[in-house]
Amino acid sequence: MLYSVAGISGTQSAIVALTALTFLILYNAVSMRMRDRSDVGGQIADLSRGTADLARQVAEFGRRLAAVEGRLVSANSANADRVQAVHGEINELGLLVKQLAVSFATHEEMLSSAAAAAAAAAPALRPAAEPQKEAPPFVPAMPAAVAPATPSPPVKTKAPPA
Fold first, then answer.
1. Is residue 158 in some structural domain?
2. In a domain, 24, yes or no
3. CB 126 within 8 A of CB 132
């Protein structure tokens, strides 16, 4: 344009065109760099917000995990306490059953020795003139709580015909 309109020589117009092209290239590079910086700044801000959001979510997850672990530990300790209580009660019941067995054996021994002493003393205490009657078998007295509520009817036997 300078060569045909202004009448400048071809080499001078080529130098001016080359200089204009260089300035346009520099302007384009600088403007692209400025635009890239604003885009990079936005990307960095987005990345920073994403990182902060991720950190918040991880903290929330950690808090929830700690709450679940706390509930699990308390449930396990409560179950262990219950098992210990039941174990102690079972041990106590075992001791009571052993004491009952020992007490029962002692009473049984006392009753059998009393029956044997009564049987040995019975013939020596009777006078010789009386006919010997058969002694009724020794029946220990039952406690009131165990005794039957109604007495059983007496047994009737038929006399043989004469």
1. no
2. yes
3. yes
Domain-embedded: residue 83: yes
Give pLDDT tens digits for 67-83. Answer: 999 998 888 888 888 89
Among the listed residues 90, 72, 92, 68, the one whose alpha carbon sits nearest the alpha carbon of residue 80 = 72
**Would you say 29 and 23 are in contact if contact means Cβ atoms under 8 Å apart?**
no
pTM of the model: 0.37
Phi-psi region at 9: left, alpha or beta (left = phi > 0; alpha = psi -120 to 50): beta
* Domain membership flag for residue 123: no
Q: In terms of residue numbers, what domain contains 45?
A: 2-111
> Quick one: 101 exposed, middle or buried, by C-beta within 10 A (0-12, 13-18, 19+)?
exposed
Q: How many structural domains does the chain have? A: 1
